[in-house]
Amino acid sequence: MNERRRGIFAIYLVLFFMSLSLHIQFPIFTPYAVALGATTFFVSILMSVSSFANLCGNLIAGPLIDAIGKKHFIVVPLFISGLLMAGHGFVTGPDGLLVLRLFNGFVLAFMTPACFALLSGYARNSHEQGKNMAFNGLLITIANILAPLIGGHLVEHVDFRGSYFVIGSSLLLTAVYALFFIKEFEPIVVHRKKVNSGGMFKLSQQLVAVYFVSFTLMYVHGTLMYELPFLMVEEGVSMSHGGKLFSIIGLGTLVVVCMTWINRISALIRTMFGMLLLGFSFYQMVMPLVPISFNQLLFLIGAGLGVLFPAVTTLLTENIDKSKHGTAFGILSAVFSLGMITSSLVAGTFRDMISPYFITFVVIGLAITVIGMQLFNPNHKHALQNK
Question: What domains can be seen in the chain, in order of their start residue?
Answer without folding.
Answer: 2-182+203-386 (1.20.1250.20)
